[in-house]
Amino acid sequence: MSAVSARRISAIVLRQAYLVRGSVARLVPLFAWVAVDMVLWGFLTRYLNAVTGSGINFVPTLLGAVLLWDFCTRVMQGVTTVFLEDVWSRNFLNLFATPLSIAEYVAGLVISSVVTSVIGLAVMLVLATSLFGLSFFGYGAALVPFLLILFAFGIALGVAASALVLWFGPASEWFVWPIPALVAPFGGVFYPISTLPMWMQRVAHLLPPAAVFEAMRAIVSGREVSAAALLRSGALALAYLVAACWLFTAVYRRAVRTGLIARYSAESIS
Question: Is the pTM above the cut of 0.85?
Fold first, then answer.
């Protein structure tokens, strides 16, 4: 087995950079949809602040939650979009006709996601701060574990979603897009976990975002953040990331062994 090559990893990243640079349709979504989300939810928080009269500032709670969850979603989509670009262009099989290894390919997906998600995060921060006065750094030192946990979990979701498409075939890409919407209700993005039915609470405690958003609301309300919960959440995120990488590798080897990998170079994708 050959050693992991930084040059081959960078080639995956470079290919995606060329695709984005050469297409406005690929460049605009890097910041357009996050900007729409920030503006929409930002004005909603202003409206809630104006009509509730409860003294609660919805900007750090609601808009902050939207920003963090959008970051996690963009991280996931950064991985899946690069993978799907290879599926759509029927280039996936060609890549593995080279010495490229699965580890190098997945590393390329992750680095590409880092770049695109950082761009989206920067746009969200600028809009949330300049238009709606969200002090993102008001979360203090907890901001670092928040972003790291959501980043690791987003990567895990992206790699696992790519494995599903690799398993069931190119036409199954619809599995990818609903995943954030399915996870969000269990993650307590917009409300405390205690509001959920008991069975949903049990599921929520198995999802790393739940501890992040509970900690975020604790900071805003002046309560103490549970460091143990964040550590457990970080360990869960890393475990899911390892499991997702193992799943992708196992599915790829199965596709090669059974010959199903050939459908990624077929004339028509079905």
Answer: yes
